[in-house]
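Progress against Task 2.4 (sequence-to-structure conversion) is shown through the following example record, which the project officer requested during the mid-term review.
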Amino acid sequence: MRPIAEAMFELHQIADSEPVQLLADAFSKAGYELALVGGPVRDAMLGRPVTDLDFTTNALPDKTREIVAAVANKTWDVGREYGTIAARVAGETVEITTYRAEIYRDDSRKPEVTFGDTIEDDLVRRDFTVNALAFMLPERRIVDVANGITHLMEGVLDTPSTPDQSFTDDPLRMLRAARFAAQLKFNLADRVTAALAEYAHRLEIISAERIRDEFVKLISCDQPIRGLRILVAAGLMELFLPELPALQLAQDEHKRHKDVYEHSLTVLEQAIALERVRFEAVDVPLRIAALLHDIGKPATRRFERGAVTFYNHDVVGAKLAKKRLKELRFDNDTVKQVARLIELHMRFFGYSEGTWTDSAVRRYVRDAGEQLEQLHILTRADVTTRNQKKARRLAAAYDEIERRIAELAEAEELAAIRPDLDGEQIMQLLEIKPGRAVGAAYRYLLEIRLEEGELGEEEATRRLLAWWNEPEQAKLR
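Structure tokens generated for the chain above:
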């Protein structure tokens, strides 16, 4: 945590900004309290960028909207039933939530919300002490009901009430504990760690969508590994992504890692490092694929001649990932990308012992499609051997493949590999109508394109007509 004087200076600068001043004056004149709360206060104290402006007030939602409308360009509901109104004020998007308390009943997926009267009661019901901090406006004083500032200085994540009460009230907070531990690089208080294991089963009442969203936030952290370890150790991961903790039982075939679980965490870590160099933003499908790329190993584990093998774990893993991500309500595009990357992640290693033919390079590019750059990263990240000579050899081999891809791409437009003749030309030359014969002819020309490169229309026409007149194609005519 930065020095208190610096933190307070940062908070005063935020309070001096136009949107905050407009809101503070509007609520004060209307006779209501207003406070900057939670993340913005925490991040200002830690010296982290303040990206969101979240406020709390004792005004009820309808009154909040009335007050805000006088100073906002636009207002809208983001959860009126939960007391939250959003607005655009002086170019900034803000959210104002009425003091509240929410409790999950034993069989409920949705919280029951009641509105409170005091800032202290509102803060006590929040998830963690470091988020239970408020900066009252326009008075500009800190309200800290549960030693949040002390915990910020100590780097400890604890709950304002007992962890039992906090995680019973909202079980999703258990996932948030892992995420904040990773995000802030904090340690969990001992009582929080114990409660995670004891109340993990409560996560069963939370919807798949909310679990998915929290998992995505965790995997998108700069360094998510700490949070993932917490979820696995507490038994929480077992409830929504059991394939990951199951990797602890699958010995790596090289026996150079503690287990496949540890290897997978290392691959994720290395993929994130490469992602930062090659991409401008976080790539969630890539990160999930890196974490889950070996989940097919437990099901394919075999002992042969004194060695452990995992044949076809890439194909099995892709199917497992697809099924699990669909259950977590991931969108179809993410599911497809993750499954494809897992399915292809071993492809390079099958060729790494020798020189690739141009045909092999074309097929690699074609199969990866728009995910080629993601596959580059995943394949490189999958090298975790401690044998430096082997690691250098694999890196050099992949450097060579990327160079070959670039050269062929420049010469042949690999990004759009297609036969030299399109469907219309095929139908015209063979004098046939749309149907399976057109598809068969197209696939035949595509195979030649992949094997030999561009033929040109004249040669492609000659080959097509010769193929069409072969006896084997009689059934298509």
